[in-house]
Design brief:
Layout lengths: L6 H4 L13 H6 L6 E4 L5 E3 L7 H9 L3 E4 L6 E4 L4 E4 L1
Antiparallel strand pairs: 1-2, 1-3, 3-4, 4-5
Bound molecules: zinc ion (3 copies).
């Protein structure tokens, strides 16, 4: 685990877990996803950068919501897009 200075990760006190294991935006457009990420600002679950639509990173840029958590079962990590900071929990 590489720790880089990131005030966003430092500010996370409890991890938001996915309500449903699906990308809300892909469901709307009938697309598919590879992995899921949950926004730690608003709790929406969206698809990862390996997915064709990359909804989680688009959401982070458009909404200014920097931190996502993996929504994959068994994965326990956070990532901050603007700081490219990664943290396991
Ligand atoms: Zn950050
Ligand atoms: Zn998606
Ligand atoms: Zn969000």
């Amino acid at each position: 685990m590489v720790e880089r200075g990131c005030s966003h990760l430092d500010a996370i006190e409890s991890i938001k877990q996915p309500h449903r294991r699906e990308c809300e935006e892909c469901v709307k457009i009938g697309s598919y996803w590879v992995h899921l990420r949950t926004c730690q600002t608003c709790g929406v679950t969206l698809c990862c950068d390996s997915s064709p639509n990359q909804h989680a990173s688009k959401h982070a840029r458009a909404g200014g919501h920097p931190v996502i958590a993996s929504a994959q079962p068994g994965e326990r990590w956070l990532y901050c897009y603007p700081d490219e900071a990664f943290s396991e929990y």
